[in-house]
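User: quick one, sequence for these tokens?
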């Protein structure tokens, strides 16, 4: 069973958001403080397109249908634990 919410995305193999060509996206170096700060979050990376010159951020992680299953699974788990704790507390401290 997969218990990951975020899956690694590969922007290098995805389409350019500007011209739509595949395989033209390459990693780009940061040029200023804002770009460095955004990159340091680890969520996005700076990319540029060799074809049309587009430059921007792309997410390094993505969610898919397994993410929802995992979130639901964790939700049920947390609710179950909360219910058990409530029952124990009621048994010990309730009237
Ligand atoms: Zn492009």
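Assistant:
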């Amino acid at each position: 069973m997969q218990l990951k919410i975020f899956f690694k995305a590969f922007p290098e193999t995805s389409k350019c958001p500007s011209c739509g060509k595949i395989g033209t996206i390459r990693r780009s170096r940061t040029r200023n403080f804002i770009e460095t700060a955004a990159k340091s979050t680890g969520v996005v990376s700076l990319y540029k397109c060799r074809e049309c010159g587009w430059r921007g951020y792309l997410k390094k992680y993505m969610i898919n249908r397994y993410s929802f299953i995992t979130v639901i699974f964790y939700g049920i788990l947390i609710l179950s634990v909360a219910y058990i704790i409530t029952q124990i507390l009621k048994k010990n401290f309730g009237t």
